[in-house]
Amino acid sequence: MPNNVYKKKWYDYLWIFTIVYFTLGFFNILFAWLGMICFITPLLISVIWGSKAFCNKYCDRGQLLALLGGRFGLSRRKDIPNWMKSKAFRYGFLIFFFVMFFLMLWNTYLVFAGATSLKQVVTLLWTFNVPWNWAYHGDLFAPWVTQFAFGFYSVMLTSTILGIITMVLFKPRSWCVYCPMGTMTQMICKVRNYEKNSK
Question: Does some domain include residue 2?
Fold first, then answer.
Protein backbone atom coordinates (compact mmCIF):
# COMPACT_ATOMS: atom_id res chain seq x y z
CA MET A 1 0.00 0.00 0.00
CA PRO A 2 1.44 3.44 -0.92
CA ASN A 3 2.61 5.55 1.99
CA ASN A 4 0.40 8.45 0.94
CA VAL A 5 -2.80 6.41 1.27
CA TYR A 6 -4.69 7.51 4.38
CA LYS A 7 -5.11 4.75 6.93
CA LYS A 8 -8.28 5.09 8.93
CA LYS A 9 -7.96 5.44 12.68
CA TRP A 10 -10.41 4.28 15.33
CA TYR A 11 -11.84 7.80 15.67
CA ASP A 12 -12.77 7.88 11.96
CA TYR A 13 -15.65 5.57 12.83
CA LEU A 14 -17.18 7.68 15.59
CA TRP A 15 -20.03 8.63 13.24
CA ILE A 16 -21.49 5.24 14.16
CA PHE A 17 -22.10 6.60 17.66
CA THR A 18 -24.64 9.12 16.31
CA ILE A 19 -26.63 6.42 14.54
CA VAL A 20 -26.52 4.08 17.54
CA TYR A 21 -27.44 6.93 19.90
CA PHE A 22 -30.60 7.93 18.05
CA THR A 23 -31.59 4.32 17.47
CA LEU A 24 -31.28 3.41 21.15
CA GLY A 25 -33.10 6.60 22.20
CA PHE A 26 -35.91 5.79 19.81
CA PHE A 27 -36.63 2.55 21.67
CA ASN A 28 -35.63 3.60 25.20
CA ILE A 29 -35.40 7.30 25.99
CA LEU A 30 -33.02 6.76 28.92
CA PHE A 31 -30.22 6.13 26.42
CA ALA A 32 -30.44 9.87 25.67
CA TRP A 33 -28.17 10.39 28.68
CA LEU A 34 -25.31 9.01 26.58
CA GLY A 35 -25.40 12.29 24.68
CA MET A 36 -23.77 13.96 27.66
CA ILE A 37 -20.53 12.46 26.38
CA CYS A 38 -20.77 14.80 23.39
CA PHE A 39 -21.32 17.75 25.72
CA ILE A 40 -18.71 17.09 28.37
CA THR A 41 -15.85 15.76 26.22
CA PRO A 42 -15.32 18.82 23.98
CA LEU A 43 -15.51 21.14 26.99
CA LEU A 44 -12.91 19.10 28.89
CA ILE A 45 -10.57 19.01 25.88
CA SER A 46 -10.83 22.76 25.34
CA VAL A 47 -10.46 23.60 29.06
CA ILE A 48 -7.57 21.22 29.78
CA TRP A 49 -5.61 21.41 26.53
CA GLY A 50 -6.92 24.60 24.93
CA SER A 51 -7.68 22.61 21.79
CA LYS A 52 -10.59 22.11 19.41
CA ALA A 53 -9.48 18.54 18.76
CA PHE A 54 -12.98 17.23 19.41
CA CYS A 55 -14.51 19.37 16.67
CA ASN A 56 -11.68 18.72 14.24
CA LYS A 57 -11.16 15.01 14.85
CA TYR A 58 -13.61 13.29 17.20
CA CYS A 59 -17.04 14.84 16.54
CA ASP A 60 -19.32 11.97 15.58
CA ARG A 61 -22.03 14.23 14.17
CA GLY A 62 -19.57 16.18 12.04
CA GLN A 63 -18.24 12.90 10.68
CA LEU A 64 -21.77 11.70 9.83
CA LEU A 65 -22.57 14.95 8.02
CA ALA A 66 -19.32 14.70 6.08
CA LEU A 67 -20.16 11.11 5.15
CA LEU A 68 -23.72 11.87 4.04
CA GLY A 69 -22.83 15.04 2.20
CA GLY A 70 -19.51 13.85 0.81
CA ARG A 71 -19.42 10.15 0.03
CA PHE A 72 -23.18 9.85 -0.48
CA GLY A 73 -23.44 13.15 -2.35
CA LEU A 74 -26.41 14.56 -0.43
CA SER A 75 -24.90 18.05 -0.25
CA ARG A 76 -25.20 20.85 -2.82
CA ARG A 77 -21.64 21.82 -1.77
CA LYS A 78 -22.45 25.52 -1.83
CA ASP A 79 -20.62 28.02 0.34
CA ILE A 80 -22.45 28.89 3.52
CA PRO A 81 -23.77 32.49 3.51
CA ASN A 82 -21.55 35.10 5.14
CA TRP A 83 -24.24 36.03 7.66
CA MET A 84 -24.15 32.49 9.03
CA LYS A 85 -20.39 32.83 9.52
CA SER A 86 -20.71 36.15 11.33
CA LYS A 87 -20.01 36.49 15.04
CA ALA A 88 -23.44 38.06 15.52
CA PHE A 89 -25.21 34.97 14.21
CA ARG A 90 -22.92 32.42 15.86
CA TYR A 91 -23.02 34.06 19.29
CA GLY A 92 -26.71 34.84 18.92
CA PHE A 93 -27.43 31.20 18.14
CA LEU A 94 -25.29 30.16 21.11
CA ILE A 95 -27.35 32.39 23.41
CA PHE A 96 -30.60 31.07 21.94
CA PHE A 97 -29.34 27.51 22.39
CA PHE A 98 -28.47 28.18 26.03
CA VAL A 99 -31.92 29.65 26.68
CA MET A 100 -33.56 26.55 25.21
CA PHE A 101 -31.21 24.29 27.15
CA PHE A 102 -31.97 25.99 30.46
CA LEU A 103 -35.70 25.82 29.73
CA MET A 104 -35.19 22.08 29.35
CA LEU A 105 -33.41 22.00 32.72
CA TRP A 106 -36.23 24.06 34.24
CA ASN A 107 -38.83 21.56 33.04
CA THR A 108 -36.69 18.79 34.52
CA TYR A 109 -36.59 20.64 37.83
CA LEU A 110 -40.38 21.09 37.82
CA VAL A 111 -40.80 17.33 37.47
CA PHE A 112 -38.19 16.78 40.19
CA ALA A 113 -40.05 19.16 42.52
CA GLY A 114 -43.40 17.54 41.75
CA ALA A 115 -44.80 20.76 40.31
CA THR A 116 -45.58 19.09 36.99
CA SER A 117 -45.89 15.58 35.60
CA LEU A 118 -43.61 13.77 33.20
CA LYS A 119 -44.09 14.82 29.57
CA GLN A 120 -43.40 11.89 27.26
CA VAL A 121 -42.74 14.03 24.20
CA VAL A 122 -39.77 14.94 22.05
CA THR A 123 -39.75 18.58 20.97
CA LEU A 124 -38.46 19.07 17.44
CA LEU A 125 -36.94 22.41 16.44
CA TRP A 126 -37.98 23.75 19.88
CA THR A 127 -41.54 23.99 18.58
CA PHE A 128 -43.27 20.72 17.70
CA ASN A 129 -44.10 18.24 20.45
CA VAL A 130 -44.03 14.69 19.13
CA PRO A 131 -45.46 11.95 21.40
CA TRP A 132 -42.71 9.46 22.26
CA ASN A 133 -44.57 7.17 24.66
CA TRP A 134 -43.14 3.91 23.31
CA ALA A 135 -39.65 4.91 24.46
CA TYR A 136 -40.64 5.12 28.13
CA HIS A 137 -40.39 1.87 30.06
CA GLY A 138 -41.69 1.81 33.62
CA ASP A 139 -40.60 3.47 36.84
CA LEU A 140 -37.07 2.13 37.28
CA PHE A 141 -35.72 5.68 37.57
CA ALA A 142 -37.15 8.86 39.06
CA PRO A 143 -39.44 10.84 36.72
CA TRP A 144 -37.00 13.76 36.55
CA VAL A 145 -34.30 11.45 35.16
CA THR A 146 -36.65 10.46 32.36
CA GLN A 147 -37.80 14.05 31.81
CA PHE A 148 -34.19 15.14 31.31
CA ALA A 149 -33.74 12.29 28.83
CA PHE A 150 -36.74 13.41 26.78
CA GLY A 151 -35.49 17.00 26.81
CA PHE A 152 -31.92 16.12 25.98
CA TYR A 153 -32.94 13.79 23.17
CA SER A 154 -34.99 16.71 21.80
CA VAL A 155 -31.92 18.95 21.84
CA MET A 156 -29.73 16.35 20.15
CA LEU A 157 -32.32 15.49 17.52
CA THR A 158 -33.10 19.14 16.77
CA SER A 159 -29.44 20.08 16.34
CA THR A 160 -28.91 17.05 14.10
CA ILE A 161 -31.89 18.03 11.92
CA LEU A 162 -30.42 21.53 11.58
CA GLY A 163 -27.08 19.98 10.69
CA ILE A 164 -28.68 17.84 7.98
CA ILE A 165 -30.60 20.80 6.54
CA THR A 166 -27.47 22.94 6.28
CA MET A 167 -25.54 19.93 4.94
CA VAL A 168 -28.04 19.55 2.10
CA LEU A 169 -28.23 23.27 1.31
CA PHE A 170 -24.54 24.07 1.66
CA LYS A 171 -21.27 22.20 2.24
CA PRO A 172 -21.40 18.91 4.21
CA ARG A 173 -20.09 20.27 7.53
CA SER A 174 -21.73 23.71 7.38
CA TRP A 175 -23.35 22.98 10.75
CA CYS A 176 -19.88 23.14 12.30
CA VAL A 177 -19.70 26.85 11.41
CA TYR A 178 -22.45 27.78 13.88
CA CYS A 179 -22.58 24.72 16.16
CA PRO A 180 -23.06 26.04 19.72
CA MET A 181 -20.54 23.59 21.12
CA GLY A 182 -17.99 24.63 18.50
CA THR A 183 -18.55 28.31 19.28
CA MET A 184 -18.25 27.67 23.00
CA THR A 185 -15.05 25.62 22.75
CA GLN A 186 -13.58 28.25 20.45
CA MET A 187 -14.23 30.88 23.10
CA ILE A 188 -12.61 28.70 25.77
CA CYS A 189 -9.57 28.05 23.55
CA LYS A 190 -9.14 31.79 22.91
CA VAL A 191 -9.19 32.49 26.66
CA ARG A 192 -6.77 29.63 27.35
CA ASN A 193 -4.35 30.76 24.64
CA TYR A 194 -4.57 34.39 25.78
CA GLU A 195 -3.74 33.38 29.35
CA LYS A 196 -0.88 31.21 28.11
CA ASN A 197 0.62 33.97 25.93
CA SER A 198 0.24 36.64 28.62
CA LYS A 199 2.39 34.73 31.11
Answer: no
Transcribe 116-135 into DSSP letters: S----EEEETTTEEEE-GGG
Contacts of 47 (CB under 8 A, 6+ apart): 188, 192
The answer to the question of residue 5 being in a domain is no
Q: What single letter denotes the amino acid at residue 171?
A: K
**pTM greater than the 0.70 cutoff:** yes
Which residues on adjacent β-strands are paired with residue 122? 130
Average pLDDT over residues 14-31: 97
Give residue 45's identity as a one-letter amino acid code: I
Q: Average pLDDT, stretch 163-172?
A: 97
pLDDT (average), residues 180-196: 89
Structural domain range at position 74: 10-198
Give the number of domains in the chain.
1
DSSP state of 141: S
- Band (pLDDT 50/70/90 cuts) for residue 139 is confident
**Three-class DSSP category at 68:** helix
Angle, to 10 degrees, between the axis of helix 180-198 and the axis of helix 87-112?
110
